[in-house]
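hey m, so remember when u said the tokens were messed up on ur end? i reran from scratch. heres the input so u can diff it against urs
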Amino acid sequence: MLSSLHSKLVMNAASLMSIPAKLIPQSVHNKVLLEGLQRVFHEALEDGDFEFLQDRWLKVSISDLNLSWMISYQDEKLIVSQSPQSQDVSFSGTLNDLVLIAGRKEDPDTLFFQRRLKIEGDTELGLEVKNLMDSLDLDSLPKPVTQCMEQLANFVQKGMSQPATKEVLA
């Protein structure tokens, strides 16, 4: 019973989060994302590792939540745009797949070849973004952040690995 509920929660996470996500203004989404990126990539930003993104635009989308963000690097800092931009490269995936990538439970290359992670546009820029993400040392993040990411990724991974039953899909 509990494993069935667990699988149902994981499989329907995007549906459960879609309404609250749409009620939050885009400006709030952008601000929270920017602050999170600045904290997670603090060291990379100090080292100038984002220069490859100078005046170029990365679009990141959570496909099953219909959410997306435009990210760039200008004047030695990350920015998240309030207005639509012409993207140079885009990354998109489902909520669960992106949680698994963030928690290092799935390899982005594997999901790309399984067509669960879509990378479109400038492939060289996309590779640089992916390599920067791969180089992130999770141990450099605050312990509560890494613990939360790990627990959430474990929860999603376990829920996705449960056998699907008619009750779970109902």
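this time it looks ok to me. Residues 6 and 159 are 6 Å apart (CA to CA). if urs says something different then somethings off w ur setup not the seq
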